[in-house]
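Researcher: Quick sanity check before group meeting.
Model: Go ahead. Protein one:
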Amino acid sequence: MVNRKELHPESSPQAAYGALLRTSREEHGWKQEDLAARMEYSSTHISAVETGRKCPTSRFAHSADRALGTGDLFQRECHKIKHGALLEGFAEYVGYEGRAVEIRLYEIGIVPGLLQTPEYAQMLADSAVRRGATTPEQAAERSMSLTSRQSSLKRLRPPMVWVVMDESCIRRTVGGAAVMSGQLDHLLEFASLPNTVLQVAPFEMGERRPVNLPVTLLTLPDRSALCYAESQTQGHLDRELSSVLPVLTAYHQLQAEALSQAASVAMINQLRKGIP
């Protein structure tokens, strides 16, 4: 079949949902247009859900079950996406992240997920399980998702990645000296790559810091820009240019105020050697 996109259901719950929808549709011998007519959605919408670019809604899931005769299968899977290990909205973001040509990150308190070592990430996951904030199964799902996301940075044509980390990210000890030593080494390796820029926003920036919450900005192949941010319970993906541009401007201001990559690497090296 021409232009048939390969699916990767293991990459996220949203991708698994899309693969299940495609399989169910093809078992009926239907094209996307056929299913779209029965569900009262556009074929473009069906395609976006199948390829993980759009998150299914409860209404969409109910319509899919009715059209495909699957009982409440798609409604149950939709509920898992919205109430599973990953924040609502995050699965949709991951679909865009894997296609982005530019990624801009700002993080406070912890090393950004894309830059975490397995040991560092495991310590955070184990802590969440001990607190009862998540189950072991959910922690494992998050780990799989993180591994898949990190692998996208190593694809044939990797994205350009800019990272600004608040100084608290490298000074907050996670997992003890050995884990932090490995994590700092990994940050130094990341900074040496040809497609990355790593900067530290030092404490001394004070009130000059223009961004006070973690944020991610994506540039897609068509040069459209997206902004993703999280609360404690939900992720929000913003595609409106009027909303994204002010955040992009603030990010550029943040980069201008942050330490240069050379100075940031020097600071990380000092910490790596135990120098305060």
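Researcher: Fine. The other one?
Model: Protein two, sequence then structure:
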Amino acid sequence: MPVVRDLRVLLRFRDFRRLLAVRLLSQSADGVYQVALATYVVFSPEKQTSPTAIASAMAVLLLPYSFIGPFAGVLLDRWPRRQVFLYGNLLRALLAGATALLILSNVPDWLFYTSALCVTAVNRFVLAGLSAALPRVVDPDRLVMANSLSPTAGTLAATAGGGLAFAVQLVASGSNTAVVLLGATLYLCSALASLRIPRGLLGPDPELMQPRLWTAVASTAQGLAAGVRHLTERRRAARALAAMTAMRFCYGALTVMVLMLCRYAWSSTESEGLALLGLAVGVSGAGFFAAAVVTPWAVGRFGPSGWMAVCAAAAAVLEPALGLSFAPAPMLIAAFVLGLVTQGAKIATDTTVQSAIDDGFRGRIFSLYDVLFNVAFVSAAAVAALILPADGRSAPLVVAVAVLYAAIAVGMARSDLQ
């Protein structure tokens, strides 16, 4: 298989292997932690979940970071990225352990969300650093290949982590505490794996780094403004980010719908709903893997913008065709399709941003990228909360998402012709 051959080529780069290990351990921990949060917030027997409750939880976990994300990006362009992975994962291990204690203590929800928010904030910081560091461990000719395989491998690791979390819950009689502690252990392993990477290898260049916190914070506003100006001068990267943000909005709205369908329409018990959600996550993960296989060829055939247009067009046609029945089997096929097109578009976007943005700005641009993801996802959850009925069946939402996908396809096709 071409994907296996490409992976063998990339694995010849020693530092790519080490960075990939950090990503796999970190994102598998993310998958474990996210399943623990989902089961605690959505599938706990004592909680009556609604679309509004899901939207509120997403807002609490994601929006506060959206305000500090760009500032974190400026710091990411000034601190050694290897140290970000080391201390970031150590901090997440500690915070995840604290979350486990909060679950055991049956504390108010706001305190639980505060702990989870801190883990999520550091998570976005680490993911932005991983994307910004990737061009430092492979040569330019293999950057598309690396963008196809590395983030997708991380997504598959998160999916595997989620599957492992489901298994632990079965063995531990639904214990969210055990699952969170497993995530903390994996975060610790990721921190230790980062020590194998030379401290200065991942950038940024020494002349750009400001090791003193207050020196870096003082220059944050200027650095952010410079990053935004740099992005506006790279119209190709700006268009890709805008399109990917809109596709993330679509994915977020459909995610809330599937959560409600699993919780109420397709199941009579919490455990049955959780099993269906796990199946949907696994099928979507298979779509992510398929994207890693086809995207390098597709980008070579259509170009990054053209491939994004193809992905959005496919979603515009197949999402309503499969989703309007609101039956489990067609919706699971739709989950595979949406996993493929979303990850395929993301790989193309990552490659566009990395090739168009200078190294000294990549950290803040990828942090901005994450902020756009968060805002789009939370906004989609809020819109879904207004539209979705209690059981999750909403034809207007499915049609509206299809129209938005079609608009993205047209916009990216036009930009590809310019």
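Researcher: One line on it for the slide.
Model: The chain has a mean pLDDT of 84.
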